[in-house]
Amino acid sequence: MAVDVAFPKERSKSLAVSITQNTPLDVPIDHVSRSRWEKIREVIWDGGYRTKEERKLVQRLDLHVMSWATFGYFIRLLDSTNITNAYVSGMKEDLNFKGNQYNLLATFFTCGYLVGQVPSQFLLTTVRPSVYLPTVELLWSILTFCFAAVPNVKTVFALRFLLGMLESPFAVGVLTLMGSWYTPRVNCNDTELSKRIAIFYSASYAANMFSGYLQAAIYRGLDGRAGMPGWRWLFILCGVISIWGPIWGYYAVPDNPYTTRARWMTDGEAEMHIKRMNSVDRRRPEKLSWKKLKRIATHWPLYVLTFTLICHCVVTQPLNYFAVWLKSLKRFSVYQINLFPTAAQATGLVFTLSYGWLSDGLNKRWQILIIPATFNFIGMVIVAAYPNYGATFFGYLINAASWGFWPVLYAWAIEIMHADMEERAIVIGVAQTFGQAFIAWVPVLILDVSKYAPRFHLGFSIMSGISVLEFGSIFLILWFVRRDERRKVESGDEDMTGKVLEELWRR
After folding, report:
1. Strand partners, 189
2. What is the three-class DSSP state of 182?
3. Residue 167: pLDDT above 90?
4. Using 50, 70 and 90 to split pLDDT, how confident is the model at 466?
5. Which of 29, 91, 260, 466 is the most buried (most CB within 10 A)?
């Protein structure tokens, strides 16, 4: 039987006292009597009970870490996804792409990504992120320039493999870094993670939009300049934009609170960050041992979160074929084919930020995840059914509204594994690796452009079923989280009443 947690007002104070005395959350008594403005402020940005010093501390962290991470992810996606804009803007014809070679562009990139992903996460537990992450940024920025000189399709494949390998450490490295500096809900402060991961991830939409706008502008203004087609100019300009990321990264990246050597951070600020991490039981990083690896390998997050991310990576593939579908209609110019998909990216940007803000402000994780998972299923069914041009266009757009699933999922995952940095790094790396592994071969098999374009009915129908699995995985994670909480209570670690436990779960 479900426990009733609708407490009358006269009992709210006693409830708050009970929670304060019996849980590690240390929630103050006046939590339940916050003003409306305090609740609104929590939704907007880092509300709750924070000192002025703590707010300033986190703002300085944002100025350096978030600015570098967001711009870095922007250039990482810009440098890896501009291949689609180049393909539909003349590269296909100039280099004589045939058959399913368009699909192989993603396959070679993903293979490189897989080669670099897991080893990179192990390296991050031993090598300073402030050196490692900006260095791989610098290398992939140099590689971006090389695409402007490719003579044939085989060279493109080779460079795509190397680009994937060099870009693989970045996203999971940043997530690991964020998990070391930003906090979940504690002392009645709203969580800092989800909205920041959403901002970080929203850079992917901005990159895709910018690439579309940039290629459209280049095609009009630079196509044929200096004897080069517009798609080659795209890679040159992307390289020029990218080179600034690693330069800022060498200064801005602070490693973790216990080992930081950041020149912009004072000793006092570092000490305050350590206290913040201690308050949420995030300890100093430890060296990996076989005993720890065995514990991680036998703990459920490694498998359940990996399964969830595999589903998510597969069911968000339609946007990669939006421009291909538009080109196949033979009713739009090259300029329009580059421009129209940016509407989907704009949709994804708005919804991703909205999910992050709501998830942090309301302190809800699984409840918010239901929204993008539902949008994904609706969008998949529409593009699979292909009722008409207008509905299919809408199906692609609404699929973009489901991409915000990823930041909220990772915020939840970081909080589930908050006490163990090594487990966070390995689980995030493995989950991301398997997600990328599946999109290396699944699209080649069921979204073969030479066989199934432009409708891709078989592939999108299969993805509709996988979308159902993604939805179900939310409740699978929730079941494991609640099981762990019950075990803590039953073992006597936390003397909680059923009502208080249910109230905590509802958050």
Report:
1. 186
2. coil
3. no
4. very high
5. 91
The gap between the terminal CA atoms of the chain, to the nearest Å, is 19
The one-letter amino acid at 497: T
Q: How far apart, in whole angstroms, are the C-alpha atoms of residue 456 and residue 451?
A: 8
pTM: 0.70
Residues 6 or more apart in contact with residue 143 via CB below 8 angstroms: 79, 159, 162, 163, 166
> What pLDDT does residue 218 have?
78
Phi-psi region of 330 (alpha: psi -120 to 50; beta: other; left: phi over 0): left
List the domain range (segments joined by +) for residue 483: 13-506
| CA 454 from centre of chain | 28
The enclosing domain of 161 has a CATH number of: 1.20.1250.20
Both tokens of 92, joined, read 């296909």
Find the DSSP H helices in 329-420: 334-339, 341-361, 366-385, 389-400, 405-416
For 186-213, b/e burial (b = at least 16 CB within 10 A) is: bbbbbbbbbbbbbbbbbbbbbbbbbbbe
pLDDT tens per residue, range 241-288? 899 999 999 999 998 888 888 999 998 999 998 888 887 766 676 676
From CA 315, how far away is CA 309, in angstroms rounded? 10
Is 8 inside a domain boundary? no
DSSP-derived secondary structure for 409-420: HHHHHHHHTTT-
